[in-house]
Design goal:
Jelly Rolls, globular
Length: 195
């Protein structure tokens, strides 16, 4: 498996090596030992989620309060997505930096999103489906939503018409408001341990 760290410290893109023949293909989509070796942190899945979206649906930017925190390992299992992670960890040397990854069912590419990092995606096809393997189960009241269209973040979604968004995402606060309210995780509490 090929692994590349993004501009967001601790966020990685995993691209599997595919074995192809006349029947199709096979690849390992997730290996806990590989994720842990690369991130330097334990990753034990506690929940797996799927969401299916129409073309031009924008979901995110979402993160989870620390504690409890929640790391994610995401991939597209049907269709195609423009996936974005953004560093929302207060005090991080990369605060506000983002990384864009094209995820599609054929590539098997996955993105590891560490605690405190925001995540969102734009569906590029109808009936696109994303799978989230998460390190902590859902805890009501801990999700933090940031306006995905916040001009302070200026995320490059690349849509050509207004995207379909939930009311919750459309009315989410911008990053400045989230900072002022003390909602965001601190870098010192979530950064990778020194190697």
């Amino acid at each position: 498996m090929e692994v590349a760290e993004t501009r967001v410290p601790g966020a990685f893109v995993f691209t599997p090596e595919q074995i192809r023949d006349e029947r199709g293909s096979f690849f390992e989509a997730f290996r806990g030992d590989h994720v842990e070796a690369v991130t330097g942190r334990p990753f034990r899945p506690e929940q797996i989620n799927y969401s299916a979206s129409r073309r031009n649906t924008l979901r995110g930017v979402h993160t989870v309060a620390v504690p409890p925190g929640q790391a994610k390992y995401v991939t597209c299992v049907r269709g195609a997505l423009r996936d974005i992670v953004v560093d929302l960890r207060v005090g991080s040397p990369a605060f506000g930096e983002y990384h864009v990854t094209s995820l599609d069912a054929g590539s098997g590419r996955c993105v590891y999103v560490p605690d405190g990092v925001g995540h969102g995606f734009l569906s590029l096809t109808d009936d696109a489906c994303i799978c989230y393997v998460v390190s902590k189960r859902y805890v009501s009241g801990t999700q933090i939503d940031i306006d995905p269209l916040d001009p302070d973040l200026a995320l490059p979604w690349g849509f050509s018409e207004p995207p379909l968004m939930s009311a919750k995402d459309a009315t989410a606060p911008g990053v400045r408001a989230a900072l002022a309210e003390g909602l965001l995780a601190h870098w010192r509490d979530v950064r990778r341990p020194a190697s």
